[in-house]
Structures are given as C-alpha cells and as structure tokens.
Specification:
Structural class: alpha+beta
Distance between the termini: 86 Å
Strand content: 35-45%
Radius of gyration: 29 Å
Number of helices: 6
Length: 361
C-alpha cells in the first residue's frame, strides 16, 4: 500500500487538506487554496534541495626556506601572550596589542611561511595624519584623548590573513508575494498573489580574507577592507624590516567556518538581488555548496593603535595600503551632558515660543 503524501502549506507551513467544496487543496489554518499541481511542483522543488557543504583541498602556508628562520625573532608579550615576528635588527619596545613595554625575544619556530605579503604603502606620518582626521569634529571626545603623545603610540604591523578561494553551487527557493488593492463605495479589496521563485547557479570567489589572529577583532579587520591584491608579492623577509608581524594563532582550518559564512552570505545576497518586482520575498530553502575550496597565507599591512581611557581599551586600525581608518572613540560624559542639556534647553525654549505664539493668535 503506497504512503499518502502530506503536503505543507507554502503560506504558513501547516498541514494542508483537500477541500471537496472548492475542489482544491486548502489550508485549514490560513484558508489559502492551491491547485494540486502547484503543490506537487512546490514539494518537488523542496525535495530536490541539497544541503550546505564544503570541500577543501588546500589550507595554505608553506615551509620556511633554508636560512630564513635564522634571520627572524619572535617577541612574546608577558601581559597578553601576543607573539610578534620581526627581523633581527628590529627592536620591539612595546606590544601593539596591549601596550605592555616588556617583550621577550626568542627564535622563530613552529609556524608556516606566508605565501604573499602586501607591503606598506603608507608610512607612520600618513597614519598619524589619518588618525588626526578621524578625531576631527568629535565634540564629545575627551580633550586629553587628543593629546599628541597618544598618536605617537601608533605602530605598523603585518597582520596574518588566510585568503580563501572557492566556487559556489547555489540553489535557493523563495516565496514571493504581489499585492493589489482597490476599493468601491462599500468595500476595500485586496488581491494577493503568491509565487514560488527559484534561483540556481554558480559563483567564484577569490581571496576572501579572514585574519588569523585571536588578539585582533575580526570585525575591526573586516572594516578596513578592501585590500588591493594587485600590490601583493611573494613573501620575502626583507619586507619585515622596520615593522612587526603578528604570528598567527588561529590556523586556516579554524578560520574556514568564518570564510564559508562570508562566502555563503555574499552568494545569498547576490542571488536575492535578482528577485525583483514583488512586494515581499522570503527565503524558503537554501543550499549553497562550496567546491574546489583552498586557502593561502598572506600578511597585510595595518597601522594599529591601542590606548586606554578610564579603564577601557580602545583600538584603532588603519589599512596600511589604502589609508582607511576605523575605531571606537571614548565619550566625554561631562561634554555629553552639557550637549544633552543644551539640546533640551533649545527644545524647551522653542516649545515655549510656539506656545506663546499660539496663545496670541
């Protein structure tokens, strides 16, 4: 005996039944009616959907060439345990992550060699000017925070990034609605039409970056994107001269889920942008499969400033290639309350003037 197929309502996902009176399938919960053929087609689309998955072939990084490691040192911060790579001529005086002045040098060991590096295009002077511009016009910023000695703490550091390549095979089903309204002397009428919209296809992604440092906030690093990879060169220790390089502490396999999330979200956004002409659209099911996925290891230039204000740490970052600056700012509470009370006084004065004018009319 064959199994009776139970259909779900595309409108509310409730169990749907055949209505003898309407001679159509009807949902007892939302009263929406459907032709059997429409429901069969909709159910077939859902049954054919795949699940999200990803297959990886390469997680990036290579072995150090003979003699390269001997010219590099690792500085370890006693306060935050941050590890920084520098050439043998670089003197690290303070940790760029927490500001601690004590670092202990040792020889580099146990890490992968970067595949690429984007050299610094902007120097410390440009970084300081960018920070000054970032602080301009901020009336609620504490006055002491603007002092020049804080700007001197800015440091250039190569941040480790894992760059992910992947092809996506996407199959996404949407439920769309179009609504039409009209009225006569007695009633207002609404006609709603429902559509099942399907999009399927492929996209390719190259060098989606995820920073490999647990000490640097991912959102902060994503905020100073994009980097122009056309400036990238094969890694050479010479580019570390005069700068520090953060030693990655999150490997490419651990960073892969964030890369997959970014790739899937970008794919979903691109496909959704093609579904137009409806009053509302929602995703019913989505399958985005990552294929031919691989990763490379690169160092990207960042000017970094950490400073403390009233026990809270504030971090600013500037893209060392493009000059884009981001970072949170502290709030001068006294300046805020002066501003807030000034606004309230202005509103009160305006209301009083309006009331006076009305009373005179």
């Amino acid at each position: 005996m064959s199994e009776i197929k139970q259909y779900k309502c595309p409108q509310c996902n409730g169990g749907i039944e055949f209505s003898a009176g309407a001679q159509r399938m009807k949902c007892p919960y939302c009263d929406t009616e459907f032709d059997v053929a429409v429901l069969e087609n909709y159910a077939a689309q859902l049954d054919s959907q795949k699940e999200d998955s990803a297959s990886w072939s390469d997680f990036g990084g290579s072995e150090w060439q003979e003699g390269e490691e001997g010219s590099l040192s690792v500085f370890t911060c006693e306060a935050c345990s941050g590890q920084l790579i520098a050439d043998e001529n670089t003197a690290a005086t303070a940790c760029p992550f927490c500001g601690n002045p004590t670092v202990i040098p040792s020889r580099l060991s146990g890490s992968l060699r970067p595949d690429y590096v984007i050299p610094f295009r902007l120097d410390k002077k440009a970084a300081k000017e960018a920070l000054k511009r970032h602080l301009q016009g901020k009336r609620l910023l504490p006055r002491s925070f603007r002092e020049e000695n804080r700007i001197e703490e800015i440091r250039g550091i190569y941040v480790p990034f894992w760059l992910y390549n992947a092809d996506t095979d996407a199959d996404i089903l949407y439920r769309a609605e179009s609504e039409d309204r009209w009225e006569d002397d007695d009633y207002v009428y609404t006609k709603t039409e429902y559509y099942s919209v399907r999009r399927a296809g492929n996209m390719a992604f190259d060098r989606v970056p995820v920073d490999g440092s647990a000490k640097i906030d991912n959102t902060l690093m994503e905020s100073i994107e994009p980097y122009d990879f056309s400036d990238a060169v094969d890694f050479n220790t010479a580019y570390l001269s005069g700068f520090l390089a953060d030693k990655y502490d999150v490997d490419s396999q651990m960073c892969a889920p964030r890369a997959e999330e970014r790739i899937r979200q970008s794919t979903a956004d691109a496909f959704r942008s093609t579904v137009t002409g409806y009053d509302s659209v929602r995703t019913v099911s989505s399958a985005i499969v990552l294929e031919n996925a691989s990763a490379k290891y690169a160092l990207y230039p960042v000017w970094l400033l950490n400073t403390n204000w009233e026990g809270k740490r504030y971090t600013f970052a500037m893209n060392g290639q493009t000059g884009k600056m981001v970072g949170d700012l502290p709030l001068d509470r006294w300046a805020y309350w002066r501003w807030f009370l000034g606004i309230c006084a202005a509103v009160t004065a305006g209301s009083f003037a309006l009331w006076t004018l009305i009373s005179l009319l």
